[in-house]
Amino acid sequence: MREVLNWWMDPFMTTSVGVGRLPMPSLAFVGDRDVVHPPATVRQGADRIGAEFRVMPGMSHWLIGEEGWEEVAAIALHWLEQTVRVEA
After folding, report:
1. For residue 56, what are the CA distances in angstroms to 23, 43, 51, 52, 63?
2. Residues of the chain below pLDDT 50
């Protein structure tokens, strides 16, 4: 959390994911009422790293702490079930 909130204090960008697509499936969520990281900004980041992009209607910035967080969790779990293969 510290790295996310204080990215500007990291002059060497040690928490950066770099340039281009990530080598693994990724999912980016944003609330349609988020004024901290608006949907357009999150879409640009998702496109940059090759992530799927989902907008949550009626939600703002702190998706896991807002009313409706259960839907966010359900979508994330469904995405994981459909995307990630677990090998024993």
Report:
1. 25, 13, 16, 13, 8
2. none
